[in-house]
Amino acid sequence: MSSEAGITVVNGEAVRAGRGMLIIVSAPSGGGKGTLIRRALQKVNNLGYSVSWTTRSPRPGEQNGRDYYFVSPEAFEEMRAHDGFLEWARVHGNFYGTSRAEVERVMAEGRDVVLEIDVQGAALVREHVKNTVSVFILPPSFDVLRARLAGRKSEVPSDLTLRLLNSRSEVERYRDFDYVVLNDEADRAAKELVSIVYAERARRERQTALVRRVLETFPESSSETKQICI
Ligand code: ADP
Ligand code: 5GP
């Protein structure tokens, strides 16, 4: 069995258990993915986060294993060669990838999984995994994006410029996504993201197991019902 089939099976099993949605969240750099995802993870039960692998250097305050697994290009390549990534992409000059094992671990805990990945990775996951939910976080304008990204003080000027140069083509791919959330005010936007997760969980096709369990509590025939009610 290919490992691509593996992830689909894991997803299928988890969906039957009532969890296991893959929720893809993308945005241009500085768009507010991290900010909104952090809030959603605090508010929603049984929601987990897949920590990606990256060859980028850690920023001050970032922790290995919490924000990313920070690895060498060689380690990344070895993981890639062994088909360890559900998807991977080169983004703003560094490599990033979603570890299959990480996603399976979060799903095995019975949780839905947030993937904070770029638009290329989002397309690959949608192609290979059924029933994903994808959300594009939209900044209110280019000027606001630039101000927020510069205000984060996380990039040297050349990296900041590269990220801003790439931002328009990333926003243009909003059409590939199921939802667009405007990140104007963080509290409001986070609530919208949380609402999407709840609404997607309540979809009929994700509630089949629950409905079956509830149906089992009902008497089979109308004559049985009549006897119980009298
Ligand atoms: P991303 O993860 O998409 O690169 P971040 O979540 O790091 O973006 O947000 C970029 C910067 O903008 C951060 O400094 C963050 O605090 C700030 N920010 C995010 N959302 C908002 C918002 N709605 N209003 C004001 N500042 C915001
Ligand atoms: P940053 O360097 O700002 O943390 O991330 C840069 C970009 O890489 C963001 O668009 C982020 O979503 C994306 N990214 C982070 N992890 C992954 C991943 O595992 N796969 C892909 N394709 N993109 C990722």
Brief overview:
This protein has 230 residues and is of the alpha/beta class.
Protein described:
The chain has helices at 3-16, 33-43, 73-81, 100-108, 119-128, 142-152, 157-171, 186-201, 208-215, 222-229; strands at 22-26, 47-49, 53-54, 69-70, 85-91, 94-99, 112-116, 133-138, 179-182. The protein is of the alpha/beta class and 230 residues long. The protein has one domain (5-229): 3-Layer(aba) Sandwich (Rossmann fold). It has a five-stranded parallel beta sheet with strand order 2-7-1-8-9, sandwiched between helices. A four-stranded mixed beta sheet has the order 4-3-6-5. Helix 1 (3-16) packs parallel to helix 4 (100-108). The protein is elongated, with a radius of gyration of 20 Å. Residues 29, 33, 52, 56, 87, 89, 91-92, 96-98, 116-118, 120-121 line the site of guanosine-5'-monophosphate.
CATH architecture: 3-Layer(aba) Sandwich
Sheet bearing the most strands, described? 5 strands, parallel
How is the largest sheet built, in terms of strand order? 2-7-1-8-9
The percentage helix is 40-55%
CATH topology: Rossmann fold
Determine the strand fraction and express it as a percent band. Answer: 15-25%
Mean pLDDT: 91
Number of strands: 9
Order of helices and strands: HEHEEEHEEHEHEHHEHHH
Number of domains: 1
Low-confidence stretches: 1-18
What count of helical segments does DSSP give?
10
CATH class, please?
Alpha Beta
Distance between the termini: 56 Å
Query: What structural category characterises the helix and strand content?
Result: alpha/beta
Task: Name the hetero compounds present.
Answer: adenosine-5'-diphosphate, guanosine-5'-monophosphate
Multimeric state: single chain
- Going by CATH, the homologous superfamily would be P-loop containing nucleotide triphosphate hydrolases
Q: What's the overall geometry? A: elongated
Task: Evaluate the radius of gyration.
Answer: 20 Å
